[in-house]
Each structure stands twice: as C-alpha cells, then as structure tokens.
Protein 1
Amino acid sequence: MMILEATNIRKIYGTKKNQQEVLKGIDLRVEKGEFLAIMGPSGSGKTTLLNVLSSIDRVSEGAIFIEGNNIVAMKDRELAEFRKRHVGFIFQEYHLLDTLTVKENVLLPLSITKTPKREAEKKFAELASELGIIDIQNHYPSEISGGQKQRAAAARAFIHEPSIIFADEPTGALDSKSASDLLHKLRKLNQQRKTTIIMVTHDPVAASFSSRVIFIKDGQLYTQLYKGTETQQQFFQAIMQTQGVLGGVRS
Amino acid sequence: MSMKQLVFRNLKQNIQHYYLYVFALMFASALYFAFVTLQYDPSLDAIKGGVKGAAAVRTGAVLLIVIVAIFLLYANTLFIQRRGHEIALLQLIGMTKRNIFLMLAAENAILYYGTLIIGISMGFAASKLLMMILFKIIDIPVKASLSFSGRALVQTLIVFSVINVFMMGMNRLFLKKQTIVSLFRTTSTTEAKHVSVWNMVVGMAGIVLIGSGYGVSMKLFSSDWKSVQGLFMAMAFILGAVIIGTYLFFKGTISFLFHLWRKRKGGYLSIDDVLSMSSLMFRIKSNALLLTIITTVSAIAIGLISLSYISYYSAEQAAQNYVAADFAFTDKKDAARFTAALRSHDIRYRETMIDVIEAPTDISMILDIADQSRLQFQPSAAALSVISDTSTGRIDVKPGEAVLTGYQDILRQFLPFKETGTIRLKANGRMVPLHYLGMKKDYYVNYHFTHGMPTVVVDQTMFARLQKETDPQMKKVHIGIHLTDETNIERADQLFQRMKFSSIADSRLIMSRYQKQTFGLIMFVVTFLGLAFLVTSGCILYFKQMGAGEEERPNYTILRKLGFTENDFFTGIRQKQLFYFGVPLLLGLSHSYFAVRSGWFFFGTELWTPMLTVMAIYTVCYSLFGMLAVRYDKQLLREAL
C-alpha cells in the first residue's frame, strides 16, 4: 500500500528576479512500513524535501498525497490538524520543551487528541520501556544526556501512533554509541509497529539501518538503493560506493 | 558599515522593540518636569503658606525621581542582557569592548536625550493641566498661568543626566565582566526542580507570615498596644511579616501548589497547561523578588492613594462634624449681627440655639477598656458637654436616662463604648447616676465644645437642674444658622468673611474648603506618585514578560511544528499573563486593604467608597499592561513557525 506519493515537486526560493530552484521536480513513492533514508551532499535540498513532505514548508509546484490526502491543497489550519494526528517528528536538536519533564514532553501529542489518561499511561509505559527512558521520565531535558533526549523525542514521535515519521538528521548531534543505539530502536519500532519512517541523514552508517536509500543531488533524484536481502554491512558498502560517485563538488 | 551607521541601525531596531521603555521614560520625565515646574511656580505660593504646598510637591518630586531611577536602571540591565548575542558577535569580529561601550553609549544618548526632550515638552504642556487639576481639586479660584521655568529645565536635565551616567557605568561593568562565550550561552536552566519538604515549609511560612501580619494590623490601634513604642514595634512587625511573607509566598507557596497540581496530572498536560503553568513554574523562583517588589509597590501605591482620597472624600463630612450648622456662633451678639446682615440681603435662614454645659462625667463604667489607667484623661471625671433632649429636636430621653451623641470612627478605635450601662453626672457636688442607652452619630454642637468627645444628652428637667447649679462660667451657648436655601451659601459666606466677631465663629464652607485644600494637595501629589508607581511596575513586568517570551520562542516553534495552531495557544497565554499580572495585583490589593483598614479612621469618615474607587481605577490601569503582554505573546506566536 502506498502511504506517500509525491509527483513533480518543485521548490523555488527568492524573488522573481533572483530565483533559486532548490527542488527541481522530484517524484517519490513510499510504501507503508518502509524505512527510507534520504542522502545527499550539503545543499542538495534534502532537508527542504523533508520539510515539504512533512508539510512544515510548502511546495511551489507539484502534488503530495499522504494516505490519499493531498496536503498541497490543504489550508494551514488543516495542515496543523493533519500533523497532529498523522505525523511524527524527530529533529537533530531534539526540540524538547525545557519547561516540561520527559514524560510530559512525550505525552504532549496525546493531549491534543484527547486520549483518555489511562490509555495514555499504557502507551507511555510500553514505549518508554522500549526506548529505555523509564528511569528518566521525571527529569527535565536539561538534566539528561543528548542520547536520552533524542530517545525521548523519538518516544514523542511514536506515542500517538502516526502513520509516518519524519526524522531530520536524528543522529547528527549524538556520539556513535548513542547514535547506533537510537537507530537500532528506530528500526525495531519500524518493524514492530509498521510505522513508516523517512529520515534525512548524511551518515552512511545511519542510512544503512534503512530499507531503502535515495540520493539527491542539486535538487534532483540521483539514484536509489534497496537493501533487499543484503546484510547491513553489504548495504553500507553499497551506500559508501554511491556516495563516492556522487561526490560533493562538481568537477 | 561605519560606527555611525551601526548606531542608527541599532536604534531603529530598538525603538520598535522598546516603545514601552521610550514611553515610560517620556512619561517619567514629563511627570518630573511638571512637578519641578509646579515647585518653582509663584502662583503656588498662594497655597504655600497654609498647606505647605511647595514642600509637598518637592517631597513628591524627590520620591518620584527615586522610583524613576530604580526603574530606568532595572530596565537598562534587562535590555543589555537581551543584547548579549549581538555584543558577543561584535567582539568576535574584532570590536574592542571600549568600542562597543562607546557604541552603546552613543545609541543610548540619542534615545535617552531624544525621549527626554519630548518628555520635557510634554511635561511643560502637562504642567498647566496639572495646575488646573490641582486648583480644581483644592477648590481655589486662581487662574492657572504658567511660564516656562529655566530652573526646572536645568534641574530635570541634571537629574536625568546623573541617572544616565549610572546606566552607562552599569553597562561598562557588564561588558567588563562578560566573556564572549558567556554572552553566547543561552541561559535557560530549569528552576522547576523537584518539590521538597523545605519547599513546603517555606510555602507555609509565607502564608503564616502574611496571615499574622494581617492579624496584627486588624487590632493595631485597639487598646492592646497603647504606648508609642509598642505601636511602632507592631507596625514594623506588620511591614516585615507581610513583605517577607509575600516573598516566601512567591518563592515557596506558589511553586508548591503548582507542584501538587502538576503531580496530580501525572505527566499528561494539556496545551494550556504547557503554556501557562509549566512556563510559570520554570521562572517563578527567580522572579520571586521582582514579584514581591511589584506587589509591595502596588500595595503602597493603592494604600496611599486610598488614604489620601479618603481624607479628601471625607472633607465635607469632617466639616459637618466640626461645624454643626452652616454657620455656628458661641456668642449671641455675634449671631445677631450676622443674622441682621443676612436679613438685609434677603437670605432666609433658620436659627437653632442650644445651651451647653460642661460637666464632669463618669464614663468609666461604659468604656469597653479593661485597663483604664493608661488613658490620657480621667474617665471617672471626663469633661463632657451636656445638652438637653428638647434642644436637639430629635432625641427624646426619659428622666434618669442619657444617650451620647457625636461619635467619630477614629474615637471608636481608641475609646470603644459598651452598648448600655451607667454613667454618672456631677450635679451640685454629687455624682448622679443615669442609665446610658447608647451612642448616636449626629453632631449638635461645635467641636469647640466637644473636643472630639461625644456629647451627653439628658432629659430637660435634669438639664434645668444642672443649669441652675452650674457656675455661669461653665454655661455656654451654641447658635447654629441653617440657610433655608443652600444656593445662597456663597453669598452668606462672603458676608461672614467680611465681618469681625468677638468670639469663636465658624463657617462650614470655610472649614470644608480648608479641609479640601489640605487633603486635596496631598491627594494630588500622592496620586501622581502612585501613577508613576503604576506605570513603572507595569512596564517592568511587561519587559520581564518580553524577555520570557523571547526565551520561549523556540518552544512555540516546536509546538507549531508538532501541529498546534495559533488558536490552540491563546487560552494558555492568557492564563499565563493573567497569573503573572493578576497575582501581584490581587496580593497588592489585599495588602493595601488591610493597611488601609488598620488606620483609615485617622484620615476620614468614609472607608468603602473611596477605597473601592481607587482600587478599581488602579486595577483597570494595571490590566492594560497585562493586555499589552498578551498582545506581544500573540505576535511572537504568529512569527514562530
């Protein structure tokens, strides 16, 4: 089943006289339950792509369907409503509220959907043990480590059982152990809950946890790799090779 | 970009952000200049003699400058802290601290003196208005004409320049102390740590202290502490207990209550809670001192304005108590001359004549005081005025009975009377017991006779007996002239003033004017000081909220990304500001209520109407700042995504 379908999306920044086309007509189809990684050199437009797919930013042209809803045609209010219910976010800078404890941060998306308290407790208990944040549930973000913060942010992204989760460089600010720890957990949740994950990363190791990697270059789809039946190690090698070919600077 | 350009760019930015600061500075300088202009104005000499007008205005000006100085210095620290990033960046690209200081000084000088000049010109325009208001309040028919006073200008400039020098010194110190790294670091550490037993103890102590302060204030002027020293100690205790209690209340009680509430939620917070409670908890402790100051300042302002308004409001009533008719005489010939003058001018009147005897009266049995030895007079032989019941025309007393009348509220605090009992009147060297039936409020004779004590009303036969036995020296007469048509009062008063009388004669209108003059000027000064208090405390809260809002901006962005819309935020923001502005206000109102209650009877005869009027007006003005803060937050939210 198709969960996300984007056709010919373009994003143009700037004034009429001085235009810069960041996305130059990208087509993308994502199956339900996929773990998709988006890679590309700096300035290739991968974060912009993630922003428009996740409805935080608007496209200049093209159509995006998520679960059959055309989010390009939605008004801001509808979009906000849509994000509340169907989308989860993980950011590089965690984006936890300093004023709330870990548990309060995680439960935030449920309060808007008026989930009964008992059910919320149950969901939290499950997810918190899965992500190993039970012990720190009453701590404030300033009292915990980066890895713990990112796991808390991941819990917040999963708690309301969204159909799709967008992650923007989730391991960008983590040390290698915390990063692999987080990615293992993300993959596990992806497999258990069949939640679609779209992750932007520049780290081949992080990308090797996914089931498919697409490469963007200069605002266009360059190529894509499926993991298929390969081991993670083999997949990692393949990603490294492609990245080598892709390069960063035009010769 | 040259330094000059940089300065002007920064200025452009700042004015947009700090319009309220500019407004407050303008307001303060205008008020100060107006005050000083009044102080130097010769037309104020008209009332200087009687009520020391210039002295009152000068004291006001000094107090005003203290408030303004504290406010400006505080605002300055807030502003420079907010520009930390910018300062660090400029240092990073190679500007020296000295250069940055000069840049800041130049910016500030332009903003400061520019505002000051506008403020002074507004102050000059306003001083005429203030003068007119003052003359209206104190009921003096003088034309308000003002000339520009060079001395006032120089004084204003000097005073504000001194403040500016202090501000610059603070900025220099700030620059010296801070390193680039410390300036870049965002200072957002949580204070909403976990609730402790200590927190609870502090919270309880706060409530207990405020409560005990209120408790003592309730019986401050009752008989419990009669000596001046005791009274002073009690006042100091109230002040200390209430202020420290307020501080602990903000530091402990509120965060404790919030913790309880939050614990009950079990981590499941609604968006309103996130924006209001958790955000407030995050900062409440470090804001405790500020909120305490705001509360105290509000309480002082409301209390003082209330008291002065009570005096002013009661002026009419006080005059009625002092002078028990439109005109009152103690000599029959004086009265006859005056009534003749009235008749010749066709002014109709009614004359009442009340014979008054001063007789030693034993009131020790009806005083509601256990230990009467500390009283200033002999309660067993108090020199009270005695009148007959028929002369009052309203009270009827049977033989062997007596009532007291003409009782001020202030007296009730020092001399509480029982409902009924026995008094004894000295007649012919013997104490005659009379059954005391109670206390009435009306005044029948002048204060020259009563000296603030109540008058004894007895049966006519008893009065006749007393009169026969009393030494003629002790026999007096009160002649009251009541105009039939009150519109003639001005004309009658002019006649009264033109005549010379051989013994004491009073005009209620003159008395009332005198009272209004005294209290009107005080009220005028106090009200404008209160206004300055109000504006500065409102501004400080607003600036503080601006800073807090700035810090919360990333949170708003996160929430917007998660899918919360602007509309989801509004209730929470309103709750937050309602709390932030409302709690100090409510506490301030409560403090001032108890303060006013403990001593209002010294100031006038009416408590509720003037006090509630002042409180209502203060609340409305103060709320404006809260609304501005909500508006600012909404704007932040809109820009957040």
Protein 2
Amino acid sequence: MRKKMRQRTGVIREYDMHSVSVRVWYAVIYALCIVMGIIAVFPLIWVVLAGFKDLKEFMSSTSLLPKSFSPEQFKKTWSQLGLAKNYLNSFISVAGSVVCALLFNGLLGYGLSILKPKGCGIVKKLVMLSLLVPATISIVPLFMNIQRLGMGNSFLPLWLSYGANAMYVVLFIQFFESLPVSMIEASRIDGCSALQTFFRIVLPLSKPICAVITIFAVNAAWSDFLLPYLVLRGGQLQTVMVRLFVFSTEQTVNADTMMRSVVFSMIPPIILFILFQKQLTENNVSVGIKG
Amino acid sequence: MKKISFVFVLMMAVCMLFTACGGKNGDDTEAAQPTEAPQISEDLGNELDSFSDEVIDADLTCTITLGNWPPDTAAASELALFEGYKATMEKQYPNVTLVPDYYSYSLSNYVPMAKGGTAPSIFQPPFTDPQLLISQNLVGDVTDALKEIGVLDKFSPSYIEMLADDNGRIYGLPRDGYVLGMHINVALFREAGLVDENGLPIYPKSLQELAEYGQIIREKTDKAGLVFPASETYGGWLFTNIAWNFGCVGESALEYQDENGRWICNFTSPECIAAMEYMRDLRWKYDILNADTTTTDWAGAHSELGTGEAAMNFAADDSVDQPTSNKGLALEDFALIPFPEGPAGRYALAGGTCYMFSPDITADQGRALMAYLKILGKLPFLDDDIVAGMRSDYAAKKDRGAPVLPAISAWNDDEYNKTKRAIIDEYCNVDMRLYNDFFDSISEGTITLKAEEPVFAQQLYRELTAVIQRMITREGADVVKALTSAQESFQEYLDDEINN
Amino acid sequence: MNRITRHFRGKGMKMQDLRSWLIMLPGLILMTFFVWEPLLESIRMSLYKTENVELVEFVGLKNFISVAGKTNFTQALVNTFSYTFWSLVIGFLLPIILAMLIGETSRGKGLFRTAAYLPNMLPGLAVIILWSAFFSGGKTGVLNIILSHFGVSAQTYLTKANLVIPIIITIATWKGAGATALIYMAGMAGVNSELYDAAAIDGANVWQRVRHVLVPAIKKLTWTMLILQIISVFQIMYEPMVLTKGGPDNASLSLMQLMWQYAFGGSMDYGKASAVAVIVTAILLVMTAVYSYFNRKESDWD
C-alpha cells in the first residue's frame, strides 16, 4: 500500500509512518481534507438541486432534494428571463476586457520593466500605489466621467477599465523582469523596434503570464457587476451578473428563479475552472496574488 | 522610420477600436426595437384594431425616447400592447419619431443621465421623488402642453401639490395611484377557522385584532400570521401608516414645519412610542412575524403570502398580481382588506407612480409626449381609442391571471371614472366580495387617505427601519432610547439638507 | 536589466525615451482615466457641497465633519473593524491549516487542491445569493434543515445583530480560504524536504518539524497575506449590501456600503460619499504605511 504512494513533500516523512500515532494523525488529516472538500462543493450541489424546485416547493419544502428532477424549471427560467441575450452580452464584455487587459497592461508593463524610459520610476510607484486603492472607492467620479464622455450604456468603458489594472501591470512587470536578457538584446541587434520586440519576442515568451492574466480577467470580467450596473443601467446590454444584481436589488424575480439564475451565472466560471484547473491550482496562483 | 510607423499603427488600432465601438452603439439603438413580431392573442388583436389611424398632426416633428419600454422578456401580450400604442402614435403623428428605451428609473441612475443629457424623454419615478427632482431642475416643465391638451384643471389637487413647483408649474402626471391595505391568504384563514358562513375571511379590523388573529393562525397552522418586510427602507414605510393609526398626525406628526419654517422630526411622541411598542410586541409578545423579518423585502413578502407561509401582508391594491399570478396563489384564496385601524386613527397611505420628463424637452416634444400619454389612456379622455386602450390593458391582465380590479383614479372627473369602472366590471375575474371592503372604505371615506411624509421620506424610512429592526431582533430593546437616537440622526439630516 | 536599458538608450537618448513613452501612452491614459483622476476627483469632491454631479460650493472639511458626526458612521467604522477582526479570527489561520493539511496528503492531493480552489472561481455575487438560502431562518433554510437532522430546532441567523458579521465573514472565507491556502502551499513547497529529514535525524518529531522548519519558512508570506487580507476586508461592501442590506439595525453596515448609500441610496450626496471614500483610503494608507515600515528591508520593489 505504502509503496504505491508518491514521493512525500510534506512534513510527515515515509519513516514516520511506522509510528501508530502518526498514522492515526495521518488518517485525521485525510478526514479533515475530505470534510473540507465536502464543504467546498456541497453548496454548489445544493443550489443545482434547489433549482429543480418551483417557488412553492422552494418556500415550503424542508427536504434538500427536489420532488422531481425534470429540467423543465431550468428551461423555463432560461427562456422567460431571456438569459441567452445576457450570456451573449457577458461574452462580448469578457472578450473585450481580456484583449484590453493583455494589450494595454502588457505594453505598460513592458515599458516599465524593459524599456524603462527616463522618468518611469514615478509611474511605477504610482502603479504600485494604485494596487492598494480599492476600485470601488472612486466609482462615483469614474461613473461621472464615463457619463460626461457619453460612453454610458456601452461596453467600451468596461473593456477599457480592464486596460487599467494595476495588478495585471505588476504581474507583467514581474514576469518581464525574469525574461532572459539575451533574447531581447538579440532582437534589438536584429534591428527590431521596441514595439516589434514586444510583439515578436516578449509576448511569445510570456505565454504563461498571458494565460494567467487571461484567466483572471475572464473570471473578473464575468463576475463584475458594480461598474457594469451603473454603466449599462436598465438597457439591452446587461450582462448576466448585472441582471443578477438587478434581481437582488429590484426584487423582480421569485426566489426559486433567483437560484436558477445563480446556477446559470456559475456555469461559465466552472467550465473555465475545469479547463484550466492545472494552471490555476498549481504554480501560477502564487504569482497571481503575491503581487 | 519603421519604428515610428509601428507606433502609428498601434495608435490607429486604438482609434479603430474606439470608432468600431461607436458604430456598434449606433446599431444597438436600432436593435433596441424588439425584432420578433410579438404574438397577439386573437381578441387582443381586435382590440388593437380599434385604434384610430387618422393623422392628427403631420407637422409636429420631433423625436421622443420612451423610458420603461417593456423588455423583450416581458409577457408577449404586454409587448404587443406597447407596440400597438407606438403604431397608433406613428400613424397619428407621422413625423414624430418614437425611440423605445428600456430604461427603468431609479434616483441613482437618473440624476447623472439628466445631467449628461441622456435621460429618456419620459420615465416613471415613484411619488416620493418628484419634489426632489423638481427642486434640482432635473425634470422638464409640461404645464403648457397640458393646458393645450385641456386636462390641466382635472388634476386631483393632491397630485398638483406633488408634481408642481412653488409657482404652480407642472412637471409630471400621475400614472397610477395606490392605497395601502392588507393582502390576505384566505386559505390560511380558512385553515385557522377564521371564515364566516359564506366562506369569506373574518379579517382583522384593528391592529389589535391583527395581533390576535395572527396568534390564532400561528397556533392552528404553524405559519406566520404576518409577514413584515423590515429591510432597508420598506419597514419604515409600512410603519409610518401604523404610526398614523396610533395618532402620529397633526401635532404628533413624524415630521412637521415649525413656525420658523424649520423642519422638525418627532419620533418620541407618546403615539410614536406606542406604535413602536406595538411592533416590538408583534415579535415578542404575540410572536406572529415571519422568521427573517429584517431581510425580507417586497418580493419576499409577496412570496411568503403567495406560497402560504404567511397569512397577512401589508400591501397595496396595485400589487395584487404579485401573490396571485406571480407567486401562484389561487384567485379564490386571495383577499384585499383595508388597512387595520389603530387606537387613534384610520389612515391608509396613498401614493403611486408618475410620468416625468427629461429636463431638456422642447415645446414640440412636450406636445408629442402628451399625445402619447393620451394614447396610453393616462389622460382623462373618453374617446374610443382610450376605451379600447383600457380594454386591452385589462384583457392583458386577465390573460396573465392577475386580478382585474377597480383602479383608484388620480383624476377629478366623474364621467371618466364611472366609465372606467364599468369597463373594469366587464373584465373582472375575481369574487368582488373579497375586495369590496377595501374599495368601499375608500369611496365611502371610512378610511382617510394620506400621502407619504412630506420631506426626505426615504431617509425617514431608513431611520425607522433601523429602529424596527432593533425592536424585533433584540428582546427587551429600549423603545424610547432607540427612537430618540433615530430622531437625533434624522433631525441632523433635516438640518443639513433643508434647515439652513 | 541595466544592460538592456543602456542598449535601448544607446542610439540617442531622447528619441528612444519618447518612443518608449509612446508605447506606454495608451496604458497611461487608461490608468489616468480609470484610476488616478477619479481618485483625485473624489478628494476634490469631498471638499465641496455637491448638487448632483456639480460642485457648487467649497465647504472645506464640512462634509467630513457631518459624515463623521453621525451615529451610522461610528457604527460603520466599528463594524468595519469588526469585519476585520472576525476575518482574522475565522479566515486567517484557516488557509494556513488547510495548506498544511493538503500539503501532507499524497494520494488525492490534486483533488483536494481543486476542491479548495473551486469556490474562489465563482462570482462573488452568486456566492452571496447562494449562501443567503443557507442562512435563511425558518424551517426551510438549508442550515436549519441540516441542523434538524441533529434535533436542533429552527434558528434565525441574519436577524441576529451579533451573528451577521461572522456569517458574512464565513461566506467570504468559504469563497477565499482555499485559494489563499494554495498560495501558502506554494510557499511551503519552497521548503526543501531534506530539511525535514535533517531535522528528523536530529530527533525532531513531526510537530517539532512543523514548528521549527515549516512555520519559519512561511513567516514572511504570512505577514504579507495578513496585510493583504486586512486591506481587502476593509473594503467589504456588496456582501452586506446584498445579504442584509446593512441590517439588522445597521449591525452589518460597512464603511464602503455607507459610501454607496450616500451616493446611490437616494440622497445623491456625492460630496459626503466622497468624504467617506477619502476616509477609507486614508485608513488603508495608514495601514499600508505601517506594513511597509515593518517590511521595508524586504521590499522587492525598486
């Protein structure tokens, strides 16, 4: 049995397993991990189950399981609320946000870490400082600016707002600084301009960080609702999360429908998670948040 | 050179991004019109045909944007109705361009739009907001347009007060009014034995009876007697009505202006204290409230009543579709009763929604907007089109399975009101015995209608809601202390906002 | 790095710098528009009496005095610190413990990591709405259903003033703890396992190895995570906004929520909203200053 186990990296070593008390503790550790896993996953399973209930059942049933597993309720909610349109809006919003996040933050990070023109130190400090400022804190004046420029009820300000993310800039800076100097130099000697170097050498070398930022930006843009709520208001461009926020504040949908909307709002992030769980749970997260 | 050209390409790309989006916006405005032909049920189609197609004014040329346009996701019958209004308007005024806007009003989203010049020409705020909007010059004047169309003198005076400035200029029109009463789940009353020989509910006439009946229901059915949505500002709103019935009017009013014109708030009158003690007792003495009172909101309260988790809910006649067609309570299990009287009064809060207009409307736009409202049947006119409009409105309601009830008129026009009632009776789909006491109490004047507290009502509700929350979440909370602190806080607010 | 810089600058300093600035320009414009200018604007707005979005009159610190003098501000301030306190109690050690536990497993480790990280991917708003059903009172609340199997009668949760903040923090912890644990795991993975072996040879038992090898190794990271957590909890806003609307009796009202209330909650007082925003920013800056004072030596920047 123990032979099959992989090489341990933890505090408890192979030879500790000879001790009965350590083995008991080891079992306890596993038990706790399993409990943790259940706690992490149970609410998700519950909300899907709850989605099968109608309002009457949702309000009065004391059973966690629904009476029937017919997908009828989900279909009804989907078509009644016209969520397909909100999904499409969300996808458009996310796509533009990712492009902006990579392009603008990447270029800024490139400038601050590799080009380093005269006087960029102050910009770098400003970017660092912005890390500490919560985005929502200046939401009022930001919203005013957007209105003044007539960009209300459009995706444009939402897309561009992802091009001004201090955290992503810092991630880019950190990564670019670790790039092999020789390759960038070689490109310069070959006569590439700074911008060509960025697109031909730096970006291709930066696939890992681009992947991380893409995942972060997709998830953030999908989940975002405060600025989108103010910008997109009651219009036709509402994203899934704006819709959900409107539901929760304007009290227009029933509790059961709300739970199904929650399920629908979680599907894309979960798919993203399933596709990229390796990147997310192994090496890259640490890069992500430490910045 | 090569390098510079690269920078240029990048800049161009950025510019393209901007312009591309600009173009897209344009498309969206057009796409905003529902593209799918809405389904019109057959009898509804006939109703719509009776609209007059004659051109009334071909010279009137302007564009108006129509807020609160039903979203694509609204019921097909509702969409069809508005498409019908639009078509009629376009025939009668061929040079008026109508742009549907899905905008739904809230104070927070409206103000920046009005400032930025992007407010829709017409939108629908609740009656709590017009005075604030008028005082800040955020809405358009329609006095002349109203005079022109001939309805200026038919305004109910209370509405004139709400919708005009100090000089008597009018900025809004009532859309619909409501009167607060109580929704009842008759099925639970039946289960608790609270029905007479005709099967009609024996309902509480007074707040004291409400508490007692609530207890009976709790005992017999194990459901909440009363659902009280005490979240955010909603609890305070309902509480003002209870407080009036305890005598918080006149000299003991919750807010009043002293001889120097200073606004004073008074939460610590014996009447107000008694009312708040009543709230506390509902939880701790009678224990008839629903479980999560402090997080229950408007929709939650209707859900509790509609799904049979609570027997009574303070709510108005304009939301009868909520527990019924929306939450699934059968029409025969639902009743609307007058607001229970208190030890010192019998008041019912009256309010509603109005139409208001963007601050930059021109005289032509004003004319076009009045014409549009006329087609909607919101002005007191009795031509065939209006009657047809009403009919289609009620037919749509019936179609949805919502109760079709007499509406409380915002116009002082007997003939208009009578005709309207006759049409409603035609479409009525409920046992009016479950509603008569409510409407009779209003028409017979056995209940006094009262508008919301005059200034900064939302803030007042917020303060009072916090006190109510304290009362029903802490056993033995000190009523006087909590009210005193709320009074201080709201007085400070009043001093900041208007007393200077 | 310096070498590249020198190389780029080699052919004519000014032209090169100008081009570099041009490359950064779009990003700079966006940062200005979306981050820096609004921040300065809110400081300016906090000093003015506002009528809608217009600054009508310079009033100095009047907004601050008026805002800070109100009982709801005091309460929001206390609550915000209470959020921070509870987040440290509930949510600070948990990720470290989780990281240690998962780190010790061998079989199924990937599965545990995945499970731990999953909640972090879910939209925050959806999470709050989902959990509101868990903590709803009456017999149909999920927690009550579960407790009823253990013979506990139905409780209410969100109506209890002393429970709401811990509940909101619990939800936030459910969402974030796993992801934080993975960061700690990355930190722990930095410990060469030979160190454990060496300690074991010196006679250290498992617990001693944890104390003397593992814990010191993540000390610096822990310190960083602490300040990050405090900063992020201090900005808590939409969670109470959606779950309790600040209630009962303002028991869960946070500072940022108060800001939102001033701005979008009906009174449209952008001046006062900005004053609250500035106060929050100031508190955060002080905290950060304290942090960087203690952390100065190890600063990686510049």
